[in-house]
Design brief:
Helix content: 25-40%
Strand order of the largest sheet: 3-4-5-8-9-10-12-15
Order of helices and strands: EEEHEHEEHEHEHEHEEHEEEHHEHHE
Strand content: 15-25%
CATH topology: TIM Barrel
Largest sheet: 8 strands, parallel, barrel
Structural class: alpha/beta
Distance between the termini: 40 Å
Number of domains: 1
Oligomer: single chain
Radius of gyration: 19 Å
């Protein structure tokens, strides 16, 4: 029997498929704190054993460490069986004045031997792809997202996407997309370019429905959606949110915390837990092909798989409180 985590969706008839649950690779790039090589490798192995076949990473994550670790962990696995996505827009260049750690500046517990330089030009995209292929040890990339280009939208649309489409036609890239945690720029990609998929982080969760109109646009255009960060930086990852819970990398605002706790009570009344509802919620929309959650250890992988496979009383979905964050845009 195929579990919920293993269900696959093809990205817009491009070839690459994603499993309903995707492995988010920021944590194995030492996001917030360092983990050793064995722990990182074991997390990827646990994901594979649990049926996950979609793995997401980026040069940004640990200044390339996530790509290096993911590539090493997948080496020897049947290439046709898994999908890797990475991102472009941040080139890694030698740091002329390292201070020893990237933690304070960008949140990754790695030596700051490199700097991230934003570059969405055609040349920058090609250089980024070449470097990612080298770190991952692959000869092609299944999905590539233009990463966080909100301050560089014109060049991202005029240069980055056409460069990726050329690589798609050459077979170097399978599917082309954009990944952000801001909704309106993603709508521009859907409206103005030939993207196959968008990754929206944190904007389609139990407490934040900001991406609602984006999902409608994607459904109309035949563009797949990958919903990342279903727990909103940890707020929704525990049965009962704590006073110091994080939301979008900072302290959870009072209204968001209140909504999360109301969701937790509704879950408890229906015999389930908040994280179970949180990880399953994004997939209830037909436009969403996969939900990607960060996973640091074998135990975290096992938890995420158990949560996405857990039964939920269907009445819960109509009893949840209104989201604290709603779309300010209307579907066209």
């Amino acid at each position: 029997m195929v579990s919920s985590a293993e269900k696959r969706s093809e990205i817009r008839n491009t070839g690459p498929t994603v499993t309903a649950l995707g492995f988010g690779g920021a944590s194995i790039g030492n996001l917030y704190r360092a983990i050793d090589e064995e722990t990182a490798m074991d997390a990827v192995s646990a994901a594979w054993e649990g049926g996950i076949r979609y793995f997401d990473t980026a040069p940004h994550y640990g200044l390339g460490l996530s790509e290096l670790r993911l590539g090493a962990a997948l080496r020897g696995r049947p290439r046709a069986e898994y999908t890797v996505s990475t991102k472009v827009g941040r080139l890694l260049v030698p740091n002329p004045a390292p201070n020893g750690s990237d933690l304070e500046a960008e949140g990754f517990a790695v030596p700051d031997d490199y700097l991230r330089v934003r570059d969405y030009s055609r040349d920058g995209i090609l250089r980024s792809i070449e470097s990612s292929l080298d770190r991952l040890g692959l000869d092609r990339l299944d999905i590539v997202y233009v990463h966080d280009p909100e301050d560089h939208m014109d060049v991202a649309i005029a240069d980055a996407i056409p460069a990726l489409i050329d690589l798609r036609e050459q077979g170097v890239v399978g599917a082309v997309g954009a990944g952000m945690n801001i909704v309106e720029p993603l709508r521009r990609f859907v409206d103005e370019t030939d993207v196959d998929v968008v990754m929206v982080a944190g904007r389609w969760t139990l407490v934040d429905h900001s991406a609602g109109s984006l999902l409608s646009d994607c459904a109309a255009a035949g563009v797949a959606v990958v919903a990342a960060a279903p727990f909103n930086s940890g707020l929704l990852s525990r049965p009962e949110p704590t006073d110091d819970a994080m939301f979008d990398y900072g302290q959870a605002p009072r209204d968001v915390l209140k909504t999360a706790r109301a969701c937790a009570r509704a879950c408890e009344e229906r015999g389930t837990q908040l994280p179970i509802a949180a990880i399953q919620f994004p997939l209830r929309d037909a436009a969403v092909a996969s939900v990607v959650a960060g996973m640091r250890t074998r135990d975290q992988v096992a938890l995420n798989i158990s949560w996405i496979n857990a039964p939920i009383d269907e009445r819960l979905w109509t009893e949840l409180p209104p989201a604290a964050r709603l779309s300010q845009w209307s579907p066209r």
